[in-house]
């Protein structure tokens, strides 16, 4: 009989910001590296200020929604990563230029802004509540967020540009809606190029050159 000894090397990817978050999966390691390079990501997925992507959001798979366990935190960070960057393995390649990718990048870029919060947006057609979505916003960006929500809802047959919009089930003032209607929707825009200045160092650096394709054909019934 021979007695043999073998040495096994285990590679672990450990967050420098949240050391309890670790993995042996190389792909998950990329999300850890991304979040460490942009620490605001850890704040987003462990806090509750973001209703769209914070702890407790229904955006995430059930077991990871509220849990403070490291593996749940990592799952939320991984999912957020795929929403922000369409080039990540499993990312929203086909959603790089619509409201789903836009709302993730919005949260990423505005989370540390004054008055950042999230809410439940609904379209009301005069009889029933229709399209709905959880979106983050600030007082200054509320018209932009409403405008993009309107554009997304415009794909529903029979939608009217004069439909009311509710925020947390309360109708928004017509003055705010009118200000939103005057804006151009940005959900179809090509995602921003990677920042280069030191002042933008906290912003996301994405290889969007591979996002590919032109924006889908769409109408803009609310634009004046």
Instruction: Provide mean pLDDT, rounded.
Output: 83
Find the count of extended strands (DSSP E, 2+ residues): 6
SSE pattern, N- to C-terminal: EEHHHHEEHEEH
Low-confidence stretches: 193-224
Structural class: alpha+beta
Describe it.
This protein is α+β, with helices and mostly antiparallel strands and 224 residues long. Among the domains are: 86 residues, no CATH class; 65 residues, no CATH class. Helix content is 29%, strand content 12%. It has six helices and six strands. The protein starts with 12 loop residues before the first strand and ends in a 43-residue tail after the last helix. The C terminus is likely disordered.
In short:
This protein has 224 residues and is α+β, with helices and mostly antiparallel strands. The chain has 6 helices and 6 strands.
Helices and strands, with pairings:
Blueprint: E1 13-14, E2 22-23, H1 26-37, H2 40-46, H3 70-84, H4 99-110, E3 117-124, E4 129-137, H5 142-153, E5 164-167, E6 170-171, H6 174-181
Antiparallel strand pairs: 1-2, 3-4, 3-5, 5-6
Helix pairs in contact: 1-3, 2-3, 5-6
């Amino acid at each position: 009989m021979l007695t043999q000894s073998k040495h096994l090397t285990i590679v672990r990817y450990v967050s420098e910001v949240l050391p309890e978050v670790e993995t042996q999966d190389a792909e998950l390691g990329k999300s850890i590296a991304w979040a460490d390079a942009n620490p605001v990501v850890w704040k987003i997925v462990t806090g509750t200020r973001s209703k769209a992507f914070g702890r407790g959001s229904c955006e995430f798979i059930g077991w990871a929604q509220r849990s403070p366990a490291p593996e749940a935190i990592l799952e939320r960070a991984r999912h957020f990563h795929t929403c922000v960057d369409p080039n990540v393995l499993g990312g929203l390649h086909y959603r790089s230029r619509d409201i789903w990718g836009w709302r993730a990048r919005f949260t990423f870029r505005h989370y540390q802004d004054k008055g950042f919060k999230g809410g439940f947006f609904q379209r009301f057609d005069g009889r029933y509540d229709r399209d709905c979505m959880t979106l983050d916003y600030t007082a200054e960006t509320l018209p932009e967020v409403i405008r993009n929500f309107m554009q997304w809802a415009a794909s529903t047959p029979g939608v009217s540009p004069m439909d009311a919009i509710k925020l947390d089930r309360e109708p928004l003032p017509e003055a705010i809606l009118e200000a939103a209607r005057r804006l151009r929707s940005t959900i179809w825009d090509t995602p921003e190029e990677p920042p280069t200045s030191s002042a933008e160092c906290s912003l996301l650096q994405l290889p969007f050159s591979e996002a590919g394709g032109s924006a889908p054909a769409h109408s803009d019934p609310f634009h004046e």
